[in-house]
Write a structure and sequence with these properties.
The complex is a heterodimer of chains A (271) and B (314). Chain A has 271 residues and is α/β, with parallel strands linked by helices. Chain A is 40% helix and 12% strand. Chain B contains twelve helices and 14 strands. Chain B is globular and about 55 Å long. The chains are: A alpha/beta (271), B alpha/beta (314).
Chain lengths: 271, 314
């Protein structure tokens, strides 16, 4: 897909995020807006076999949103990709809705794993990639983790295993917006040299200087796999990207915009 | 003992964990989807037999139980049937993964967790799981087995592979009597001995010790019924209630905390449905300690003699 078209979709997904969280009066807009561009690139360009009419095709590429609280970004992307209609946004986080507070494989079409308990998604993705190798399934497994999530020991257990099993059919994407619920990463639990740490665990590394630049994101995701090594893409992103009053603000991690704020955000996100 | 006992010893002894390892090999021969995951304990969980038979289908995940469980979750989405093996005490360590990674999405992952209960022995209280049945019972979508002996362990492993969803199999380290295989149906209890004065409900390797207790009671003129449950969940509520009503005096015996295990499953089944006396016999809300298994059973009141005297005292 053309970069300009992908950028248009990403803008629509950002509007979806605002609409969803505003209607629900809850959700996580900040970390959804920071990872939107990568999700759109994956579902509209990079991933093979993505088909709303056949969402259980065994050979499809998989995506696991390990930072499951960014569900609004995933739901917006899946909706624009045709997995369900926009009317589902009304029932985001509501009784009997398919769009649960965190992604639910049992309820939402297109979701490949139930996530939200941080650290688990990357570990499940490692299992998927290992299982694909075991069964000769040609699919590629993508997972997105958060930087706050990387406080969890399981992220590192999974990373050790990904290198040990030589999972070159696995791509781990870090949405590095530098913030988590209680403050910046450095205030809460410093990640230190995050590049060096993940590299030391045995990944083939790519850094994306602007993880909210579609061309840069695409270049990284389209790069050929490195035989025998799992891929790690460090996306330097901006929390709340696209909405001026949310950008770089810790407070918008898990807070929904009210009607007035939503209206302003949607105006800023017009085509 | 009298011939109306439906647990017939073969004369052999084998620990249930050893049987688990052998059962996996048998299953692996029949079903190529079966893979086995360990957390650096294949020598202890006895899955090294499977590792030897099918090296390409055995994954040692290192000393990282939580990661092992989620790796198994991911593998199951590729059509495989992973059996995770470690010590039962690490059910706690990997609990969030069992809950959210496997049970919540109802993934097809099996857990063969060994060295359960105080009969683990010398390693001590830090390693003696007295809470695993409670932890597993409370999870939606989970099936929970506690086989009595080697033959029943084979049946549980085979049944686990047939079930589409998570299954927990609790096994013990201690070598215990092997009984002739009994007819096995998931979710159905087994009447081991009929009796009219009281009923003893049991599970797992406590079958051996409750059988001894029943004999001792008989010698004292008490005709106790004995019902064994290899399946703790789904629980055979009808059978439990029927025997509670028939005898009026209910005892549960398990190598587990009296909180949350078999005793509570029985209580759920019979509470408010009749007039009974009810007593749970198990680990009385304390941790275990190092010692020889037989000494520990005596210390915590779970040997045949202690069980019989607790019942007689009622």
């Amino acid at each position: 897909m053309e970069v300009r078209e992908l950028e248009k979709v990403a803008k629509q997904v950002r509007r979806d995020i605002i609409i969803m969280t505003n209607k629900a009066g809850a959700g996580h807009p900040g970390g959804s807006l920071s990872c939107t561009d990568a999700l759109v690139a994956l579902y509209f360009d990079v991933m093979k076999g993505v088909d709303p009419a056949d969402d259980k095709n065994p050979n499809r590429d998989r995506f696991v949103l390990s930072k499951g609280h960014a569900a609004p970004a995933l739901y917006g992307t899946l909706c624009e990709r045709g997995f369900f209609g926009r009317e589902e946004f009304d029932k985001f986080r509501q009784l009997h809705g398919i769009l649960q507070g965190h992604p639910d494989i049992k309820k939402c079409p297109g979701v490949d794993a139930s996530t939200g308990s941080l650290g688990q998604g990357i570990s499940i993705a490692v299992g998927m990639a290992l299982g694909a190798k075991h069964t000769g399934n040609p699919c590629h497994v993508y997972t997105m983790i958060g930087d706050g999530e990387s406080d969890e020991g399981l992220v590192w257990e999974a990373s050790m295993a990904a290198a040990h099993y030589k999972l070159d059919n696995l791509t781990v994407i870090l949405d590095h917006n530098g913030m988590q619920i209680d403050g910046t990463n450095d205030q809460v639990m410093s990640l230190g040299d995050v590049w060096a740490k993940f590299q030391a665990f045995g990944y083939d590394m790519i850094e994306v200087k602007d993880g909210n630049d579609m061309q840069q994101v695409l270049d990284a995701l389209r790069a050929p796999a490195c035989p025998g090594k799992p891929r790690f893409i460090l996306l330097q992103t901006l929390k709340g990207k696209g909405v001026s009053f949310m950008e770089g603000q810790v407070g918008w991690h898990g807070k929904a915009p009210n009607n007035e704020q939503a209206a302003q955000a949607l105006k800023e996100l017009e085509d | 003992m009298s011939s109306n006992i439906k647990a017939i010893p073969t004369g052999e002894k084998e620990s249930v964990r050893v049987a688990y390892g052998k059962a996996l090999v048998k299953l692996g021969e029949k079903n190529e989807k079966v893979v086995v995951l360990d957390a650096d304990l294949a020598q202890a969980t006895m899955t090294n037999a499977f590792q030897k038979a099918f090296p390409a289908r055995h994954y040692d995940c290192g000393i990282a139980e939580a990661n092992m469980v989620d790796i198994a979750a991911g593998m199951s989405t590729m059509g495989l049937i992973p059996f995770c093996s470690t010590f039962a005490v690490f059910a706690g360590r990997s609990y969030d993964q069992i809950r959210n990674g496997v049970c919540y999405p109802k993934f097809n992952v099996k857990f063969g967790f060994s060295h359960a209960g105080i009969t683990l022995g010398e390693d001590g209280g830090s390693h003696q799981a007295i809470e695993d049945l409670a932890l597993m019972r409370v999870l939606p979508n989970m099936t929970v087995f506690a086989p009595s002996d080697a033959n029943e362990c084979y049946q549980c492993v085979e049944a686990a592979a047939e079930i589409d969803g998570p299954v927990y199999i609790r096994t013990a380290r201690l070598a215990s009597p092997v009984y002739e295989a009994r007819p096995f149906e998931v979710g159905k209890g087994q009447v081991i001995k009929e009796g009219k004065d009281c009923v003893i409900f049991t599970c797992g390797i406590m079958l051996e010790h409750t059988l001894e207790a029943v004999q001792r009671l008989q010698e004292q003129g008490v005709d106790a019924a004995l019902v064994h449950f290899h399946t703790i969940k789904p629980f055979d509520k009808e059978l439990a209630l029927a025997w509670a009503l028939k005898t009026g005096h209910v005892f549960t015996v398990e190598e587990h905390s009296v909180i949350g295990g078999l005793g509570d499953a029985v209580a759920d089944a019979i509470c408010g449905k009749g007039a009974f006396t009810f007593q749970k016999i198990g680990i009385d809300d304390v941790f275990g300690q190092s010692g020889k298994p037989a000494d520990l059973l005596k210390e915590y009141g779970l040997d045949g003699e202690s069980i019989a005297s607790k019942i007689l005292a009622k």
